[in-house]
Write a structure and sequence with these properties.
Number of helices: 6
CATH architecture: 2-Layer Sandwich
Number of strands: 4
Largest sheet: 4 strands, mixed
Structural class: alpha+beta
CATH class: Alpha Beta
Strand order of the largest sheet: 2-1-3-4
Strand content: 5-15%
Oligomer: single chain
Helix content: 25-40%
Number of domains: 1
Radius of gyration: 18 Å
Length: 151
């Protein structure tokens, strides 16, 4: 029995283009990406080590919105914008690859342009959130003693 792959919509096409350019030099790509519409960007190997599951069209934009820190990716994971199925430790070499890249200005501009054309964050259920922020004085005596730190 042959299964027909889902029709890829415009949002998914933009996401695939962004990922293809972001990971153009990462070979062999040992993981797959499953999009919110059920379509899959297959791994370059027969049995992928893991699959990144993008939960909604705005997930990639959340994951890569701020490349000056690694917080955006962690927050996107915590807030369930994406998940990892399979060997989560196999994701570390991919992260190391991306963080060690010396991107040219042209590459940064192209990726930034593509990122801006990805769908924005979804609304409702806490997903319209901004980055996590702590309130109160940093390194206060109360905080150092284990006292209450207002959030």
């Amino acid at each position: 029995m042959t299964t027909v792959p889902p029709v890829v919509d415009e949002q998914t096409r933009h996401a695939r283009t962004f990922l293809a350019n972001l990971l153009a030099d990462y070979h062999p790509r040992n993981f797959a990406v499953r999009f919110w519409d059920g379509s899959v960007w297959p791994a370059e190997i027969e049995s992928p080590d893991f699959t990144i599951v993008l939960k909604h069209p705005g997930a990639l934009r959340r994951m890569f919105r701020d490349t000056s820190t690694d917080l955006a990716l962690g927050e996107a994971y915590i807030y369930d914008d994406f998940d990892v199925e399979g060997n989560i430790q196999a994701t570390f070499p991919v992260a190391d690859f991306l963080m060690s890249r010396d991107w040219s200005l042209t590459a940064k501009m192209r990726l930034g342009w593509e990122l801006l054309h990805l769908p924005g964050p979804r609304r409702g259920n806490g997903n319209g959130r901004g980055p996590a922020r702590l309130r109160g004085r940093q390194h206060s005596r109360a905080g150092q003693r284990g006292g209450h730190i207002p959030l």
